[in-house]
Design brief:
α7 packs across α12 and α8 crosses α9. This protein is 52% helix and 13% strand. The longest helix has 21 residues. With 270 residues, it is α/β, with parallel strands linked by helices. An eight-stranded mixed β-sheet has the order 3-2-1-4-5-6-7-8, sandwiched between helices.
Length: 270
């Protein structure tokens, strides 16, 4: 099997993976990319020194194919790849909601498939990528996927049955934090701060809190209690969050995201 890796449908996430692999030591000579628009292919070729090929050529040439197209485009891509893709190639899917069985049914018998749910912090090498094996994927295939996605952040293996929950938590997760920062920025403006100062205060507080969560080993309840003094400002704010049902709203929101991931897997578009 060729050691070449092809990224098919190289949009923002695909490009983040590509650049992360190069930073991690992969040779551009071992990387192939495909793109729908010729000008996009030329841009990637110039920026990274990689070869740009068609999807059929990638299937014939690369030992590993990373499919980063949108979920609604995956079926037509597999139809294009199937006649050219030997069963010894590793297929890595980054499409939300699509199970490995979808690929296994459309590709040669025995094709190893690994499902990965990553997120947009891959753009800054801080992704959370969740990895699951299809029925033909081995330990070697999983380790290879970890090597690739480890270049843009952290990886975690889970059973495929947990992928929809992981999509709700981490795949969509950055959007929840952006939403919270947006709301807190508006609150800062209401309290009399200029937008830029409110933004800086909130972003640095978020970074500091995230590092404490990652590095301290403390439960988030303990970290919150350390900030919450009796009859102080923080406990008054927490009371209002509870009065407005923020905790219940978050749980409901994540359940809705999980349910939509399941709908995508079943083929429901809207």
């Amino acid at each position: 099997m060729s050691q070449k890796v092809a990224v098919l449908g190289t949009g923002k996430i695909g490009e983040a993976l590509l650049s992360g692999m190069i930073r991690a030591g992969w040779s551009p000579a071992d990387l192939l990319v495909t793109a729908r628009r010729p000008e996009r292919a030329a841009e990637l070729r110039t920026r990274y020194g990689v070869a740009t090929v068609g999807n059929a050529e990638a299937a014939k040439t690369a030992g590993t194919l990373i499919l980063t197209v949108k979920p609604q485009d995956m079926g037509s891509l597999l139809d294009e790849l199937a006649p050219h893709l030997p069963a010894d190639r590793l297929v890595i899917s980054g499409a939300a909601g699509i199970p490995t069985s979808f690929f296994e049914e459309r590709l040669a018998e025995g094709t190893p498939v690994v499902r990965v749910m990553t997120n947009t912090p891959a753009l800054v090498d801080e992704a959370m990528s969740v990895i699951s094996a299809g029925s033909h994927a081995t330990e070697e295939h999983l380790a290879h996927a970890e090597e690739i996605f480890g270049g843009v952040g952290k990886t975690l293996r889970v059973p495929e049955s947990q992928q929809d929950a992981c999509t709700a938590l981490s795949g969509s997760g950055p959007a929840y934090f952006f939403y919270l920062v947006e709301a807190m920025t508006d609150a800062g403006i209401l309290l009399g701060l200029p937008r830029d100062k409110a933004h800086d205060l909130i972003v640095q507080s978020a970074i500091g809190a995230a590092v404490m969560l990652r590095d301290s080993g403390e439960h988030p309840v303990k970290l919150r209690e350390n900030v919450t003094s009796p009859a102080g400002t923080t406990i008054n704010a927490i009371r209002e969050l509870e009065n407005h049902g923020v905790r219940a709203a978050l749980i409901a929101a994540l359940e809705a995201a999980r349910d939509r991931s399941r709908e995508l897997a079943s083929g429901k578009k809207d």
